[in-house]
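Let's inspect a concrete specimen:
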Amino acid sequence: MISCPDMVWPCVMELEVTREALTAMRAASAAAHPQEACGLLLGTGRRIIEVRETRNIHPAPATHFEIDPQALIDAYRAARSGAGAQVLGYFHSHPTGDPAPSATDSAMAAHDGRVWAIIAGGTAGGDVRFWQDDIAGFAALPFTIIES
């Protein structure tokens, strides 16, 4: 989770995202199309170094996503034991929509400060945007692409 100094909202902190993580999210989106892809954003601090694609277990995967709970539990356990990176947030695709939180995303969000990446379209070159989900809603996060 990314926290804001002095809990000021909106908190706009620039993320660093590896090129490999962006490529993996786009590939997952293309492979899942026309359904929504989803997974975990892993890293430390404000740096996303890895994504872990998970099964979308939602009963209507063409228009919704739900991350496989076991994958989430496993990632948190690995982070807690020191064997894995921290869970910074989640990613999912909008196969026919924009890379912005939908009304459904807003309604289902935990408002826990996690980062959300949303990939538009179903191509390997889909636009990716990052958002922070907090008590006041979603705020766009700027990001820089880095090499791993």
The radius of gyration is 14 Å. The chain is about 20% helix and 35% strand. Residues 95 and 121 are 4 Å apart (CA to CA). The helical segments are 19-32, 69-81, 103-108.
